[in-house]
Specification:
The complex is a heterodimer. Helices cover 29% and strands 20% of the residues of chain A. Chain A has 4 helices and 10 strands. The longest helix of chain B is centred in the first third of the chain and has 41 residues. Classes of the chains: A alpha+beta, B mainly alpha. Chains A and B meet through α2, α3 and β7 of A and α4, α8, α10, α11 and α12 of B.
Chain lengths: 279, 553
């Protein structure tokens, strides 16, 4: 607690855009962060780009309304304006404040729909990762690399090593190659979970009986963290996601060791009622 | 059955009374058997105040838990983390249910709706006074059931969205979720009966000359809300019943292993859930419209635009539900439709904002406490509105969905905004309801402390959310500490301000100065200001005739 209070000091030094000004710190939030985590995938880059447009519009609208209210408060309070007007209609004004918002919405809708379709699918898929949500850990399987799979479980606070972030560290991180178009398949063995990694612009429910599909491409090597983003019961806050992005060569090497390590398929895994993976 | 002459008089019809206004049953009979719209309205408001203490305490606990990283208040003791996390989820669930169904709806619709719809349209009472009584007592029973559910076998830790499979019998065995479902069934029945009553009253009991297009905007807002209730609640009831039979009688509507689909629940729930947020906020639109007009001493600007903006919001509210499900794995074209439809809602809400500003423009504005709360409402609603426009975009919602950004958004746009609507209504009408004026200085302190408090709570949550912090978690990675700490400081301010409000209520009732029939002067043109304060037990024994009065022009 004492240590944390010292964090207050640099608060004033932070730019409004928070961590965006810092060097690339790795895919998790910084203290006092006010903005998105730095983008590490093309989808997240476009999300931030689109949000920059939206943010200008949002701030303009709030400023306009707040400005008008301040003006009204000063100009039309009972002291400044003792006799009220009787104006209750102005057709032109009403047409304008209906029409202009419509135009603004069109300015928003076009890039929004572009982003939606871009984030949904991509061609030239190079590999597949299957993610299964469980109460309360993730199971990752690599159907294109021999179909090995393993569980990824949170490391409790008292077993953390130096430098490992609390509530974000797992025993087996999911290792993936950079600059590769990866297909992601999501399902669940029990309740609905949600696999989310903010810096990669990814968030999709895992639902039993369904396979949801998405894709990602990681721009550069690093550690990217996320947390379950759908209320899934008692330990909902304790099933983190750790994506370790490595070079393609390192990934190939890792696959070789992982195939041996996880050859027993899964280890102490619980019952998986919705298992449909490629074995 | 009713031997008591006095009770019969209160039965809604005039019993040939010559005794006048004070002639009504006394003691517990007056309340338990009440068929008087004012008494029932008062009971709704009291229920709302009681529930607000419970729901508010729950949210304060949540903010205290999130004040620092780590687990702060494990009341179950070390080694019992699971029980505490379940309890935390119950708090999250209970806070939402209580605030939505037992604080905001009773205050705005049951309370102010009951009190002022008949007064504003010049009706002696509601159309179905006994059904009105049933509506209230069903809701009281529902609240008791919900509280019982919270303390039964671990409680419902499902979130207010009750998504299966988490809410089905495998993952929530025990009676807690069943009791919760039954509680919602009762609350829903209460709401539907109340809605039927309000619609019938407004359609059939307007005073002569009170045409539908002369009706005050508050009555319009209640009319639109009642229709939303009538159409949305049965859908929830259907879904809840399916869930209940899934849990207890072996059906498989939402069980994937036996051919059902959990996502079906999400569609049903949000088909109710999205109109529900308009059910909460539209009555607040109505109150704010009355107050802005009264204190600007001007008729409302663009009355018809205001009316049909509300109608349009209500209509579109039924076709945008899946924007709550952008990460559920919906087909991309479906999401494209829901983006477009959701964005359209910005247009009628924009019309309302600008019409309020235009009503104030050129006015001679008296910034009394109700007007301050109305201005606060407009600001909060705009803040939440623009983030809503952001969230409507499915592509970008990937970054926001289920983060604290969403928590900030919906608290601004409908939760805190609705509470500001309640306070606006309270300060505006308390003189009419109890005949006494609120303490002015304390009320101003209440406004400023509450306004600052809620902004300190919720504004930093935009930052936590953008940084990626998920909702509904009892602990968070240490780097999220800063803005959570600030947010929790806001919770202290808000809680203190809420307690001050209860003190103000007490001071008003015991020591407030007496007010005349029309305490607000020439700006207050609606019919409730023509009857004395406090409003007598029976009003409009002779119907007011509005045929000569010109509409607002």
């Amino acid at each position: 607690m004492m240590q944390r209070l010292t964090i207050l000091a640099p608060m004033t030094a932070l730019s409004f855009f928070g961590a965006a000004g810092n060097a690339f710190a790795g895919g998790r939030s910084e203290p006092w962060q006010m903005w998105f985590q730095p983008a590490a995938s093309p989808v997240m880059e476009r999300i931030i780009e689109f949000h920059n447009l939206l943010f200008v519009i949002e701030v303009s609208i709030v400023t306009l309304v707040l400005g008008l209210m301040c003006y009204i408060i000063v100009r039309f309070n009972a002291k400044a304006n003792p006799v009220p007007t009787k104006t209750t209609h102005n057709t032109l004004l009403e047409v304008v404040w209906t029409g202009v918002p419509l135009l603004i919405l069109m300015v928003i809708a076009v890039p929004s729909l572009n982003l939606l379709y871009y984030a949904d699918r991509i061609e030239n898929i190079e590999m597949t990762l299957k993610v299964t949500g469980n109460q309360w850990f993730w199971t990752y399987s690599y159907p294109d690399h021999g179909g090995f799979e393993f569980d990824s479980v949170i490391v409790p606070d008292d077993e953390l090593k130096e430098g490992q972030p609390r509530l974000l560290t797992v025993d087996n991180e999911v290792v993936l190659p950079v600059e590769t178009n990866i297909r992601l398949l999501f399902t669940s063995s029990d309740v609905i979970h949600n696999w989310a990694v903010p810096s990669l612009g990814l968030k999709l429910d895992t639902v039993a009986g369904r396979i949801n599909e998405n894709w990602m491409r990681i721009n550069k090597e690093g550690d990217y963290y996320g947390m379950c983003s759908e209320l899934c019961g008692i330990n909902h806050g304790f099933m983190p996601i750790h994506v370790k992005a490595v070079s393609k060569a390192d990934f190939a090497e890792w696959v070789e060791t992982a195939r041996k390590e996880f050859a027993g398929a899964g280890g102490p895994a619980p019952v998986r009622v919705a298992e449909t993976g490629a074995r | 059955m009713m031997a008591d002459q006095e009770t019969a008089v209160a039965g809604g019809h005039d019993g040939g009374h010559d005794g006048g206004h004070g002639h009504h049953p006394t003691g517990w009979r007056r309340w338990l058997f009440s068929t008087n719209h004012k008494d029932i309205g008062t009971m709704y408001i009291v229920l709302s105040l009681v529930a607000a203490l419970v729901g508010g305490a729950m949210s304060f606990w949540i903010r205290l838990e999130l004040l620092d990283p780590g687990i702060q208040f494990n009341v179950f003791g070390a080694g019992e983390e699971a029980a505490y996390f379940q309890f935390y989820n119950v708090l999250v669930t209970g806070h939402a249910f209580i605030m939505v169904f037992f604080v905001v709806m009773p205050a705005l619709i049951g309370g102010f709706g009951n009190w002022f719809v008949p007064l504003m349209i010049g009706a002696p009472d509601m159309a179905f006074p006994r059904m009105n009584n049933v509506s209230f007592w069903l809701l009281a029973a529902a609240l008791v059931l919900l509280l019982v559910a919270a303390f039964t076998q671990g409680g419902p830790g499902t979130g207010w969205t009750i998504y299966p499979p988490l809410s089905n019998a495998d993952f929530h065995p025990g009676a807690a979720v069943d009791l919760g479902i039954l509680s919602l069934h009762l609350a829903g029945a209460s709401s539907v009966l109340g809605a039927i009553n309000l619609i019938t009253t407004i359609f059939n009991m307007r005073a002569p000359g009170m045409t539908i297009h002369r009706m005050p905007l508050f009555c319009w807002s209640i009319l639109v809300t009642a229709f939303l209730l009538l159409m949305a609640i049965p859908v929830l009831a259907g879904g809840l019943t399916m869930l209940l039979t899934d849990r207890n009688f072996g059906t498989a509507f939402f069980d994937a292993a036996r051919g059902g689909d959990p996502v079906l629940w999400q569609h049903i729930f949000w088909f109710f859930g999205h109109p529900e947020v308009y059910i909460i906020i539209i009555p607040a639109f109505g109150i704010v419209s009355q107050v802005v007009s009264t204190f600007s001493r001007k008729p409302i600007f663009g009355y018809l635009g205001m009316v049909y903006a509300m109608v349009f919001i209500g209509f579109v509210g039924f076709v945008v539900w899946a924007h709550h499900m952008y990460t559920a794995g919906l087909d991309v074209d479906t999401r494209a439709y829901f983006i477009s439809a959701s964005l359209v809602i910005a247009v009628p809400t924009g019309i309302k904002i600008f019409s309020w500003l235009a009503t104030m423009w050129g006015g001679s504005i008296d910034f009394r406490v109700p007007m301050m709360f109305a201005c606060g409402f407009i600001f909060l609603f705009v803040m939440g509105g623009v983030t809503g426009v952001a969230l409507a975009n499915a592509g970008m919602d990937i970054a926001f969905h289920d983060t604290y950004f969403v928590v900030a958004h919906f608290h601004y746009v409908m939760a805190i905004a609705a509470v500001f609507g309640m306070f606006t209504g309270f300060y505006y009408w308390i003189g009419k309801m109890c005949g006494r004026q609120y303490p002015r200085v304390l009320a101003r302190i209440h406004f400023w402390s509450f306004f600052i408090g809620v902004n300190v709570v919720f504004f930093p949550q935009h930052f936590s959310g953008m940084a990626g912090m998920p909702r509904r978690i009892p602990d968070y990675p240490d780097n999220y500490w800063g803005w959570n700490y600030v947010s929790s400081i806001g919770a202290f301010i808000t809680t203190a301000s809420t307690l001050l409000f209860f003190f103000i209520v007490w001071r008003t009732l015991t020591a407030g100065e007496k007010v005349p029939a029309n305490q607000w002067g020439e700006g207050a043109t609606t019919l409730e200001w023509t009857v004395e304060s406090p409003a007598p037990f029976h009003t409009f024994e002779e119907l007011p005739d509005m045929t000569d009065k010109q509409a607002d022009e």
